[in-house]
# Entry
Amino acid sequence: MPVWLLVCVMLAMVGALLAWDADARYEEFRRKQESLMRSSVSGTAGEIGTYLTELRRSVHLFANSEKELLDKLRSHPEGLILHDQLNQRVRFNFPEAFAFTLANRSGNPLLEDFDGLVGEVCQRDIRQFAADRAHSEVYVHPHPDVYHFDVMVDWEKSGVAQGIFFVSFPADLLARALRHGQIPGHRLLLLHKKIPGLIEITDIGPRILLKRDFKLSAEEMRRIGYSLPVAGTAWNLVDLPEAGLFENARRGIIREALLVMALFLMATAVMMGLLHLSRKKNRELGYLYRHDPVTGLPNRYFLLEHMQTLINRAKRRPLTFSLLFLDIGDAKSPDGGFFDRPDLAQVLQSAAARIQAVLGKHDTLVRLTGSEFAVLSEDVSGEQAKRLAENIEAALRQPLEVPDGSVTCIPSAGFAVYPMHGKDFEGLVQVANLAMHAAKRRSADAAPREAHGNRSI
# Structure
């Protein structure tokens, strides 16, 4: 599989894994928030319900403990001393009380409300309590001074109800429970059951303290995460998550996933770059290892590998090839002088170009060492190999052009054919080498001896 395809598959898998992880993390965040909202609302609603129950019980116990004073006030409602005594005892037992009053069994107030603290709404609730002796559901009573809620109980004498004792408390008392119960990113609100969306109390106090509309908007109503009625009250306690809480969390998770993906892409790009450089370096080293730096031709290591490949291939199917060894001999100038040794590279390059011109597409020219070359030819017979050797020798006997003029060579060639002359690398090399040296001796015997103007390389 190509590396780029493998990388693409890997990136796709990583992307899919990150997407799955992001979705799982968001679902886990959502479930955790829902669990926290249920816990927050349930706990706070129970706390408020218990607080109000205990507050009623405390007021009832107070009324029973002070029934003599209450009875005196019932008989003498204008008695200021009695009123002051009751006020002091109420303030001592209920320091946070806003107002109190006494009413007869019919719900009519007995004490004069000089300060106007017991408003019409409170008096209506007292009359309702007197009618059915069932405590009305607690809710917020607006008042110019303090938004409050009421607690009413019967006070008795000898087991017979004598009247109604009424105490009101600031709504701030319940705001404390909301502050303690709400969780970061959420807000607990007490909403009126019968007036949808009407805010009664928040964590900062009654609705009069809000710098916004007293009713929740349609969008806020849809955003309510959890809701429970508070026992004994006209309220529903709701958890309202901050706007964008879930969306921001989702975006944050996606950003983190994209950041991880970007880092992975960067790491992959760096690795691919290093891999590319490594492969390029390996190719360069491989090229240098298998090629001659002077002529740019393949060298003897290439020849060894290529021949071994052909031999292995020949074991699977019939195949013939020839190995030709060639020595271009001493290079001489046309006037008979030896060519200067520093220009041997030019001679070799010119000879290589001349040989390449003779070779076919199935022939490979190799530079061995010194002035020796080799030619590896595929799918040839012994006769074809012989003819190729003759053609190369003939081509090299023609003057070779070099920058300083031209030179002539006396080439010698010998060849071996697989499998006729050998079935392994060593055997073929030995036969071809012996044949080349035999050709050298024949050329030396046939060449005229020149005594003047010659310099050997």
Notes: The longest strand covers residues 160-170. The mean pLDDT is 88. The chain is about 50% helix and 20% strand. The CA atoms of residues 132 and 277 lie 93 Å apart.
